[in-house]
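Can anyone check this?
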Amino acid sequence: MYVELHARSAFSFLEGSSLPEDLAGMCGRLGMPAMALLDTDGVYGAPRFHLAAKKIEIKAHIGAEVTANFSPQRHRDTEKKTTASVFLFWFPLARDIRISAA
């Protein structure tokens, strides 16, 4: 069974073209039980994706692909020494968090 864990919506400028509702709908039509939406530098499509996934009873995973530029202290005055890193964050929904009593 295939589950997409790194989909981008139209809210990821120049990287995704489908609306969050369309992504959730296609996921349901293909019989996938879940999908993860990781938009670039924000969670702008998350509310719409979550509501659409809830209607068709698939599990929505929400996250963001965050880009950060770092400039080492010794190269602070030169722009050419800047390095970029990409971090992936997944945000669990409250219903997915399980707390066990110790």
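Reply from J.R.: I decoded it. The chain has a mean pLDDT of 80.
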